[in-house]
Amino acid sequence: MTTSEKPPVKDPWELPDVSGLVVGVLGGTGPQGRGLAARLAAAGQRVVIGSRAAERAAAAAEEIGHGAVGADNAECARRSDAVIVAVPWEGHGELLAALREELAGKLVINCVNPLGFDKRGAYALKPADGSAAEQAAALLPESRVTAAFHHISAVLMLDGGVGEIPTDVLVLGEKRADTDAVQALAARIPGMRGVFAGRLRNAHQVEALVANLISVNRRYKAHAGLRVTDI
């Protein structure tokens, strides 16, 4: 290539092969985590379900099948290449601080939504760090923190009669290699498409949108997701 030639532009839909990654799911016994674990395991991904109690994780893994295994949270983090964080917001910071060593060097995919609830419904909380994903990045400086999988219905993921989940997954992160890998993981689940949606500083509005989707679902008795048009 001469100095006057420009390097080729990378195809935004050219994604890496992530089929060999071991994916851990912290909070894998809760609805969101169990749903993601079930869908990824069914797609052929090697999955480790994490929980505070190894026995609960093992029971969830047996229920999911497809080769999924269970472990306590620390062992789950150690055994995995990529780790989905699907724990309740209330315990998010404490858990990640405790797993800083185990998660060092790992791809961390945060799907935690800081929400509050009152008699008027769900509303978004604003964490001191800006978002759950930014809190994770601050607590895990040696990890590669991304954010994704916020807007997917756990009910649909856990419904064995639903073959495909036609929805887009907004993916945020600081490095393209990391967000490409998360997009590729999303694409392993039939019907899903990962879409890059910016850096982690934009995670708050993505997390907060879940409160709107809860309102949509309650009004229309649905399990709504998102679609990004014209791409």
In short, what is this structure?
This protein is of the alpha/beta class. It is 38% helix and 20% strand.
What does this structure look like?
The protein has 231 residues and is an alpha/beta fold. The chain has one domain (22-220): NAD(P)-binding Rossmann-like Domain (Rossmann fold). Helices cover 38% and strands 20% of the residues. Strands 3-2-1-4-5-8-9-10 form an 8-stranded mixed β-sheet. The chain is globular and about 60 Å long. InterPro entries: NAD(P)-bd_dom_sf, NpdG, P5C_Rdtase_cat_N, STEAP_metalloreductase. GO terms for molecular function: coenzyme F420 binding; cupric reductase (NADH) activity; ferric-chelate reductase (NADPH) activity; NADP binding; oxidoreductase activity, acting on NAD(P)H. This is NADPH-dependent F420 reductase.
